[in-house]
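Request: When convenient, would you put together a sequence paired with its structure tokens?
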Amino acid sequence: MSGTAPDHVTARLERARAAARQAGVDALVVTPGPDLQYLTGVVKHSHERLSALLLPAQGAPAFVVPTLERPGLDGSAVEAMDVLTWTDGVDPHALAASALGDVRRVAVAADMPALHVLGLRDALPGATLELATPILRQLRMRKDAEEIASLRTAGAAIDDVHARVPGWLVAGRTEAEVGADITRAILETGHAEAAFVIVGSGPNGASPHHELSDRVLQTGDVVVVDIGGPLPDGYNSDSTRTYVVGEPDAEVREVYAVLQRAQAAAVDAVRPGATAASIDEAARAIIRDAGYGEYFVHRTGHGIGLEVHEEPYIVDGNDLPLEPGMAFSVEPGIYFPGRWGARIEDIVVVTESGGESVNRRPHDLHPC
């Protein structure tokens, strides 16, 4: 169960109702996942038994839950709602439809299982179902003070792990051995889990989503270390630093200096009113002008919060104006297939006048 305060739950539910009314939607139906956690603080998992928040644009919310799972809601904000329980053999979609009443447009959470989407559709033959994402993303993109504090805590925790990484990157060890050390450290720093651990050494560093392998680290290897995970409250860390086993050669120094300038330029470009695409271009232009444009093969960043990847996405074509409270990664990379790669990543929060990085570890290419 999340520690989301009851007053925050009330405010978030009301904002969601207002957004639904503005969109002309009669009700939101939100099954377990990050949207439900954001709105209610309830952390559950979807399965074949329906649990769902029913949030009419007008009127009070309700919560449908199997009777055998009702005790799991004790102490949560859901207890203040009308909790509708059901037992095996009862059609929960019909129960939800009855509670929703006469609705014509119903928006459902993006991660609602197809089993429940189709069941709800059949139980509401006079209604159309659509994604709730356009409504809920407007709320979740703008982090409040409590959420920003969580992101700062997560950033400091993962910085503590990166501070220990150089001691583990020793020639003769495998990526998997280093990854095991990192995983333990992530848990020791207060994370609920290590959601991802990337240790990309040598040619593996040229694969942005490489994870771990039995490759043995060698002197001269450039090593990309991208790590993160959720705190107990669900808010995530995500930070990348690039290291060298031994001393970097001249080519590595030259390319990495370009990457440093690109990442710094993108962070410096963060401010209210700037578009997401303009932050991407700030990094990409420097890499492109240095002749390495074809080796920067992904977007510059992604939003972060209750999910590691959420909106806003810092990518070409996204003309969304940035607003205070938005939080996202700034992580340009340069990757030479079959040879090596490098990436620098910080999480940045938009402030009233610019951007604040929650990651404070140096960006220098760190010899190990």
